[in-house]
Structures are given as structure tokens and as C-alpha cells.
Amino acid sequence: MRVALSQGIMGLFLDTSVFNNDPAMKNILPIITLTTLAAAASAQSAVAPAGLSYNRVGLSYGFDTKNYGLTASALIGNSNVLIQGATTINSKAAPGSSNGADVASLGYVFKNAALGTDVIVSVGSNEVYGISFRRDLGNAFEGALGYSQANGAIKNIRTWTAEVAYNLNKQYALALGYSDSNATGVAGDSQLGLTVRYNF
């Protein structure tokens, strides 16, 4: 609607023969044209895309493991193909042992698959397979549930996750997450974490 409207406005200025007899109009024509283009561009950039955002970066902190993590995800173009990456950037629990625990994955988003819920399936490095569900809960809240399995040399590690996020505005969100897995040691204990996200 806005694109069609801006093209209609620009159509008024494409035929400049009307203004050729007035020198003042010749000078103001470029100013009006540039002002119209700037207004149309700013109006379009101010409107965030509808639905859940998948183009985002996040900084997280694990209360139990004392780990910091960095995550990023983005849809490729206008498709539903999702690329994701995550890394551990610090570990106070075991200095040096967890830094650089990197995962990259490729997924596909089935938007509004059932009852307004998005379903994401993914395949990642280190033979990690996952499925997750995201839903807009209303009032700036959203929820997510996930399951992943990493095929290891000794045993397969299965992880379950749950998260509630609050969108402070169109760009920033705070999320509280919980995860549990069948891994041994600290990694297998229930984990609580807080994430700050930026949507782009």
C-alpha cells in the first residue's frame, strides 16, 4: 500500500512540462521529489515486520554454569531458511574449557504451522538435530519450547529447553530460559539463563 502510494505521488512529478514556464517551480521540483522519497523510505523502515523475528543476536548468561554465550540467527532473504550460530565466550566454572564451544546450524521455519505456532527444524554441526516451537503469546510476550539431540561417540545427548521472552520494543527483548539434558556433570543439570536480544 505504501509503495503504491509513493509511486503515485512520484507519478505526479514525472511530467515536468507543467513547471517549465515557471523558474521557481524548476528549483523546487528536486526538493519536493527528494523530500517525498525520504518520507516514503522512513515510513517503510519504521514499520517492523509482522510476526516473530528470526533476524536477531543474543547475549546470554547461565546462572548455574556461569557461562556467557553469544547467539545469532537470520532468515536468508525472503525465504524461510534459517541460519543460526552459537558460541560460548567465557566460562568461570571451568576457565578455558568451554570457550569456543561453537555450533552452526541450518534450519527451516514453518510459520503458523498450527494454532499460530511456528515450527523450526534444524540440522547443525557436531551432528546436532533439533526441533523447536515459537509462539506469540500477546502483550509483548512470546514462548518457545525445543528439543535437540547431539550424536556423540559415547552416548547421544538429548536437551529440552523452554523459554519466555518479553519484547521491550521492536528491537530489544529479554528472555528467561530453562534447559535440561541427559549429559553427565554440570552440563546435565537443569540450567537457568537470561538472554538479551537485539532484532535487526
Total helical elements: 2
Residue stretches low in confidence (pLDDT < 50, at least 5 long) are 1-20, 39-49
CATH third-level topology of the largest domain = Porin
CATH 4th-level superfamily of the largest domain: monomeric porin ompg
Q: What percent of residues are in strands?
A: over 45%
Label the structural class: alpha+beta
Strand count:
10
CATH architecture grouping of the largest domain: Beta Barrel
Description:
It is built from 2 helices and 10 strands, in the order H-H-E-E-E-E-E-E-E-E-E-E. The protein is globular. The protein has a 10-stranded antiparallel β-barrel with strand order 1-2-3-4-5-6-7-8-9-10. Helix 1 packs antiparallel against helix 2. The chain folds into 2 domains: about 45 residues; about 140 residues, Beta Barrel (Porin). With about 200 residues, it is α+β, with helices and mostly antiparallel strands.
